[in-house]
Amino acid sequence: MTGLIRTVETTGSTNADMLALASAGAGEGSWLRAERQTGGKGRQGRPWESPAGNLYASTLIRLRPADPPAATLALVAAVALEEAVRVFLPTGATIKWPNDLLIAGAKLSGILLERTGDAIVIGIGVNLAHHPDLPDRPTTSLAAQGAPVDPATFLDVLVESFARWLLRWRQEGLDPLRLRWLDRAHAPGTALTARLPDGEAIDGLFDGLTGDGALILRLASGERRVIHAGDVFLI
Predict the structure, then answer these.
(1) Among 93, 110, 184, 209, which one has the highest count of C-beta atoms within 10 angstroms of its own C-beta?
(2) Under CATH, to which class is 190-234 assigned?
(3) What are the helix and strand counts (H, E) for the chain?
């Protein structure tokens, strides 16, 4: 079942609003989209530029006892988002662990998961009409790729895709999701740098995912290092 989409002109953060709704007892499946955000944020609290014309949306998942690990909802969101992008840009995008989408190495989107109690709020930002200039990475937009689309139309497609993959996550477990993620991700052997929350930087070659969706890097020594959290960059 797909969710109800509510759209507002401006808000501080769709994730913050959805977290408040979750704490107030809101049920699963609703979506909130803003035309603009004044306090949008990405991973590790970094600000997310939010001009009109791009997608800023959040949804709410209520965890159930038999669900796979909550962290693997990042894979659900990434696979569903890539599938939605492919509707408008047939060449699609590349998933970078855990859930960024890249086109020719340039960042197209970001996904942020936040939790309160049994609720997971998933925020999704996609550069549809505009893309920011960032000091540490290239960026792009669907418009820059010759595939302009308005946010409401894009979200309609994303809601359907997300609902399908959420259902498969619950009914079939992680194997189909993991296989699709790997099919849409950078190739095995891709050189990556992982910057861990404690500041450590690890260089290695992409060597797949663990069964629960963690990143595997093969180091120069031949050791395989499992990464559960951190920022990952293409080298």
Answers:
(1) 93
(2) mainly beta
(3) 4, 12
